[in-house]
Amino acid sequence: MKRLPVIGVLCATAVFGLTGCSDDSSSPSEEATNAASKLCTDLSELKADNAKLRALSPSSATKDQVKEAHQAVQDDWNSVKENASQLKEAERSAVQTAAEDLKKAYDALPGETTGQDALAKLQPQILKLDEATTSAATGLKC
Fold first, then answer.
1. What is the mean predicted confidence (pLDDT) over 85-103?
2. Is the pLDDT score of 28 beyond 80?
3. Which helix (H) or strand (E) holds 12?
């Protein structure tokens, strides 16, 4: 009879031990949901920083303000690129093209460009990026 409690304790220990060793990793569905959520956050930040760039006043913005706002957009784009596999190819391509066009336009600005001139020259690319991120976020149902 003394063997029954010992066997019970050993079985209970084995069950708890195996439970403790179980895999705590997320399911593919949970990982996809988390990645899509992260991408939605990244797209929101990209859209917000692009809006800040667009909202700079052409009459009073300095080149440094344009530079800082542009850098924030580029940093956000880098975050989006890391999670872009969640985007449909067309949406990803549209956001990528718009972000790259904005970078090219900014990089092409002459050194003596004023904030006003920079914003005037960047406006079409800023609007294109805004449209692309809105479309991508809508496609993800953010």
1. 84
2. no
3. helix 3-20
How many Å apart are CA 135 and CA 87, to the nearest integer?
Answer: 11
Q: What angle do CA 18, 21, 23 make, to 5 degrees?
A: 120
Structure tokens at 114: 């004023």
CA-based radius of gyration for the chain: 25
Centroid of chain to Cα 141: 14
Q: pTM of the entire structure? A: 0.61
Tell me which residue of 119, 139, 142 sits closest to 45, measured CA to CA: 142
Q: How far apart are CA 105 and CA 126, in angstroms?
A: 10
Sequence-distant (6+) residues with CB within 8 A of 53 are 66, 69, 70, 72, 73, 122, 126
Backbone angles phi, psi at 4, to 5 degrees: -60, -50
Please report where in the chains the tokens 């890391």 appear, as a residue: 82
Six-digit token string for 44: 């929101």
Q: For residue 7, what pLDDT is reported?
A: 44
